[in-house]
Design brief:
Blueprint (H helix, E strand, L loop, with lengths): L19 H4 L2 H5 L9 H4 L1 H8 L4 H16 L20 H10 L4 H14 L5 E2 L1 E2 L6 H10 L9 H20 L5 E8 L6 E7 L2 E13 L2 H4 L5 E8 L3 E4 L13 E15 L1
Antiparallel strand pairs: 1-2, 3-6, 4-5, 5-8, 6-8, 7-8
Length: 271
């Protein structure tokens, strides 16, 4: 069975109970198993019970938004005290998603990649530049960004845990009900950000994707980002975010999906 192309570059432990090498493999993608971040649904039982009573995807999205606002105080972007004094900046999952939409290699992207690292055991392969030997200046720059106090003052990891678990419920109940996979596309100009693990022929490849990576459900949209198109069958359990999960979409691309990485078998086509 294939495992991660470089197991030494991934954590041996994670919070989903499946060996990281297996989670990163094409074998897992072919036959995915359910994933759950330890303790999240148990600690938020009343919320998931309320979700089960919603009658539509829109109702579920509204309930999630309200729950997150209440639990984490996400009721506005400019928070002020009783006398108008500026209170401490509160990090939010929506701000991270918006930041990713502007630049996946920015500070918000580092925090999201760091969350994937801590929950799924997958280290990033690229952040501004390829991340190879450790330690190295590029690794230190990534670690500094992912640990920035600016984004870790409001239980941001728990916010992302809830986003993932809610998203999996929503995908299974409404958005991808009955489907274990979805076909997605990614446009690239070269393979500088993607490590080729295997290349059986010109039209197929096994590519190690970054720990968190953007795909789109619209092939024509992928064309805008590169003249080489990677087509992948992505397991539902590896989707962190897509349009339809929230009342409004914080990402710029309507068909954009944020996908947890590892090795993916892809079809390669050229414009």
């Amino acid at each position: 069975m294939e495992t991660s192309s470089n197991p030494a570059k991934d954590h041996s432990t994670n919070l989903v109970g499946i060996p990281t090498g297996l989670l990163a493999s094409t074998a897992f993608n072919d036959f995915p198993q359910p994933l759950a971040i330890n303790g999240v649904r148990q600690m938020n039982r009343s919320f998931f019970e309320a979700l089960a009573r919603t009658a539509s995807a829109e109702g579920a999205a509204g309930l999630f938004g309200h729950y997150m606002e209440t639990l984490f105080g996400l009721d506005g972007s400019a928070l002020t005290g009783d006398e108008g004094a500026k209170r401490r900046y509160r990090s939010s999952y929506r701000r991270l998603l918006q930041g990713w939409g502007f630049d996946s290699n920015g500070p918000e992207g580092a925090v999201l990649k760091g969350w994937v690292e801590s929950r799924f055991g997958l280290l990033p392969t690229f952040h501004k530049v390829p991340l190879q030997r450790f330690p190295a200046p590029e690794w230190m720059a990534y670690v500094e960004e992912k640990m920035s106090n600016r984004f870790h003052n409001n239980s941001i990891s728990l916010q992302l845990d809830l986003l993932y678990e809610y998203g999996q419920w929503m995908l299974g109940r409404w958005l991808l009900a009955g489907a274990s996979h979805v076909t997605l596309y990614r446009g690239v100009n070269d393979f500088g950000e993607h490590q080729i693990v295997e290349r059986p022929d010109k039209r197929t490849a096994v590519v190690k994707q970054n720990s968190l990576v953007s795909f789109t459900s619209e092939r024509m949209r992928a064309d805008e980002f590169g003249d080489t198109i990677l087509e992948a069958s992505v397991p539902r359990v590896k989707i962190l975010y897509c349009n339809g999960l929230l009342p409004s979409n914080p990402l710029k691309g309507e068909g954009e999906y944020l996908v947890i990485g590892g090795n993916y078998r892809v079809k390669v086509s050229y414009l």
